[in-house]
Amino acid sequence: MNVRPSLLSLLVYVGFVLFTSAAIAETTITVEVHSDQPGATIHRNIYGQFMEHLGRGIYEGVWVGEDSKIPNKNGYRKDVVKALKALEVPLLRWPGGCFADEYHWRDGVGPRDQRPVTINTTWGGVSDDNAFGTHEFFELAEMLDAEVYINGNLGTGTPREMAAWLEYMTAEGESTLANLRRANGRDKPWKVDYFAIGNEAWGCGGTMTPDYYANLYKHYATFAKTPENNRPIMIASGGHTEQTEWTQTLLEQVPNTWSLRMNAISHHYYTLPTGDWDKHGRALAFGENEWFSTLKNTLRIEEFIKANIAIMDKLDPEKKVGFYVDEWGTWYDVEPGDNPGFLYQQNTIRDAVLTGMNLNIFHQYAERVQMTNIAQMVNVLQAMILTDKEKMLLTPTYHVFKMYIPFQDATAYPVSISGDKGYRFGEESIPGISASAAKSKDGKLWLALVNTHPSEAKSVSIATAGKLRTAKGQLLTSAAMDAHNTFDSPESVQPKEYKAKAKDGSLILDLPAKSVVVVELK
Ligand code: AHR
User: Fold this and answer.
1) How far is 291 from 513, CA to CA, in rounded Å?
2) What are phi and psi for residue 94, nearest 5 degrees?
3) Is residue 327 annotated as part of the catalytic site, yes or no?
4) What is the 3-state secondary structure (H, E, C) of 476-501?
5) Is 200 a catalytic residue?
6) What residues contact 145, with CB distance under 8 A and at least 6 apart?
7) Disulfide: which of 71, 205, 253, 429 matches 422 by Cβ 3.0-4.6 Å?
8) Can you give the C-alpha Rg of the chain in angstroms?
9) Cα 96 to ligand 1 centre (Å)
10) H-type helices in 224-287, by residue range?
11) How many whole angstroms from 259 Cα to the centroid of ligand 1?
């Protein structure tokens, strides 16, 4: 007889307990922005892009040629250039990657119809008509108002070839190479902002040991001369993943003299869902196990950065040498039927969440990490933009890069996160929240938050020295773990306006599952 009321009260009680425990769990997360502790400047080149002669990254992705039916200006596709301008790309790295060590710059200058057709032996064995060369690269950088990072050929080039390319690009006065540049349509020398001697010397760049490469670095750098007012920041090819021996050897063996300067050491880290190069894991249709393992694997970048910085702090205490993560991002299995040498992959909300997590880490180490380049800009690996002939779409990764624009050249502020119980999957867990904060040049305070959990929303209370009244910015999220944009539905995943107001003196931000939020705090 009494069953019904007691069942009802039991249900009410259970519901109440569940409700209050959820509420307690959610609101106990606090992100504190230490706005009294300004840190390093977040160099805008942390938002650098990488474009290689690889698959449809350059040809079709950026360059279609003047005669193409795809709308273009001087051969550059208009839709892609417009999207890249909106992204405020600060830096472009070219021509590779592995391709750089097989690239001979003379193939890519002069009248296009007279340029040689070469085989891209690194990426798919396809023909390259060299229509996109030095002049085309600089013209693109000028259109985007981006700095340039040229990767020199150490693997199959000579010091003479490298020196000649630098002379071609930078010589001011009378020289055959400067005159050739003029004859090819460019009177003024270009500014070469960054120049690297080789790429992945441990692998595709020549399978070298750190000692051997350090000697070659000195050899080539000795002859990499440019006018005094146009000296590039020089980058040595470093290690990858957990390696630290490249950083150690280079700092021990390359003296920081005027002629040999080594201004930065590069490092590469790619995130694979499985961590296994034989079977990376899929870009789409993955389970929560690979959502979790991808995010767990990407977080390892912080240990690699820390380990290398620890060596740098010992051997370069004046912090003259930068640590550039000049290739990073996700690397999935190519879809069945795709050319395996083209590294084309789709891009989902998982990539967006991972991007926010990586950018938040880079901000934290901004004192040394003054440049990173996501791999790659268009149609290759974790791209900003995908194209299919005349069609184009912006990926979730593009949207995160755009949302984070206020962090370019901003001053980093430390954040501390308390009460985060983490995102648990099976026996393992990773932080449930990732955050970073900075003050932009115009004095605005910005906060970026990532909820790594694929199915649990979080409420985060924001604290800082002064009183906070509002948060205003953008939110990127979606229902499915592999939500992505397609050429038929290019706006399935896109940012929405996000606003929150303080109540009773506290500012609480609600983060949906698998979301990235970037807001200005007032
Ligand atoms: O980004 C693709 C390739 O990955 C690059 O060419 C190479 O440097 C790295 O192994």
Assistant:
1) 13
2) -160, 155
3) yes
4) ECCCCCCCECCCCCCCCCCCEEEEEE
5) yes
6) none
7) 429
8) 25
9) 7
10) 245-253
11) 29
Contact by Cβ (8 Å): 212, 236: no
pLDDT per residue as tens digits for the range 124-133: 999 999 999 9
Give the contacts of 128 (CB within 8 A, at least 6 positions apart): 53, 59, 117, 118, 119, 120
* Token duo for residue 20: 């209050």
Strands (E), 136-187: 147-152
Cα distance between residue 394 and residue 387, in whole Å = 9
458 in helix, strand or coil?
strand
**Ligand 1 centroid, distance to 333 Cα (angstroms):** 15
Q: What are the DSSP calls for 94-144, one per residue?
A: ES-SGGGGG--GGGGSS-GGGSPPEEETTTTTEEE---S-HHHHHHHHHHH
- 428-430 and 423-425: which strand pairing? antiparallel
Per-residue pLDDT of 264-313, as tens digits, reads 999 999 999 999 999 999 999 999 999 999 999 999 999 999 999 999 99
pTM over 0.90: yes
Query: Which tokens in the block code for residue 445?
Result: 């305070």
Length of the chain: 522
Residue for token digits 């790429």? 199
Check whether 5 has a pLDDT greater than 50: no
Residue of the CA atom closest to atom 4 of ligand 1: 97
Taking CB atoms and a 6 Å cutoff, what residues make up the pocket around ligand 1? Answer: 52, 96-98, 199-200, 204, 327, 375-376, 381
- On the question of a cis peptide bond just before residue 95, with omega within 30 degrees of 0, the verdict is yes
CA-nearest residue, atom 1 of ligand 1: 375
% of the chain at pLDDT higher than 70:
95
Angle at 98 between CA 203 and CA 295, to 5 degrees: 75
For residues 28 and 421, what is the distance between their CA atoms, to the nearest angstrom? 9
Instruction: Report the alpha-carbon distance of residue 234 to residue 289 in Å, rounded.
Output: 41
